[in-house]
Structure formats: C-alpha cells, structure tokens
Amino acid sequence: MTAKEMWALYGEKGAYDAWQFGGDPDGLAALVLAGQKTATASAFPLYEAEGEPLPRAGEYSVILNSRNEAVCVIRTTQVYIAPFHEVTAAHAAREGEDDLSLASWRQVHRVFFTKELAAIGQPFEEEMPVVCEEFERVFP
Question: In total, how many domains does the chain have?
C-alpha cells in the first residue's frame, strides 16, 4: 500500500509527511505497530544541512518500510531539542529499541549519528543538539 492510499484509508484531511526510520526501517516500523516505539531522535545538524523544518506537535506522518510501503500513521505529540549527552533515560525507553536503556540508546545512536553526520562533513559531538520527537500511532 502506498502512503497516499493509507492516508485515504485513515480518513484524515490535510497534510502529512511520509518517511522511514533510519538504520532499520522494517524493524523500527514493527516496533511502532507493536506499540513499543513511541519516540524517535534525529541529529539537528541534518535538518540544518538539508533545509528541512523540524517536526511539530500535531503533524501526521505515514511510516514506510524499506520498500517504501506504508505501515502506519503516527501523530507527533511533542518535539524538543536536547544535547546528545542530556537525552533522558525516559526518552530512550520510549524509542523502544534494544534493552530500552539509556546506555544502549547512546551506543546505537552515537554510531548512527556519526555515520549520518559524516555524510555532510560534520563530526559527531556529545553536545550536538538532538531533535527528540514523541508520537502516537493513530492508524491502524
């Protein structure tokens, strides 16, 4: 199913974005479907480099798998920015990955952000701002 088809089935009017989680689009989308993943995090410098607006509470997204097929619809409930080293254990647990610990979150995201930032010629730094987004799955 395409993002457009899923959005029509959901029945909401208005704008939405369609995207897949980085790193493991299929596994992370499955965690959203299972109700285990209700948050995500992105490196703020990537938004700046790509000229992309930050997500905002109330916005909708169609989550895609690695084949760009629609998996579900989410609604962003909260967005805040924190330095990497100040992301909380509560946020790490809401991301629903690995053992849900802050230590695991930091290890995985340090590697992921380092790779993503290298693509735009920037180094990873512990003080780097991170966009923390919380959401709820609204369909199916």
Answer: 1
In 3D, which of 39, 27, 30, 13 has the Cα closest to residue 72? 30
Chain position carrying tokens 């340090």? 110
Residue by residue, pLDDT tens for the chain (140 residues) are 999 999 999 999 999 999 999 989 999 999 999 999 999 999 999 999 999 999 999 999 999 999 999 999 999 999 999 999 999 999 999 999 999 999 999 999 999 999 999 999 999 999 999 999 999 999 99
The model carries a pTM of 0.94
- Phi/psi at 67 (5° precision): -100, 15
What 3-state DSSP class applies to 36? coil
Q: How far is CA 140 from CA 23, 32, 34, 44, 54, in A?
A: 23, 11, 11, 30, 25
> CATH number of the domain that 81 lies in?
3.10.400.10
Residue whose C-alpha is closest to residue 44's, from 134, 117, 107: 117
Domain that residue 96 falls in: 3-139
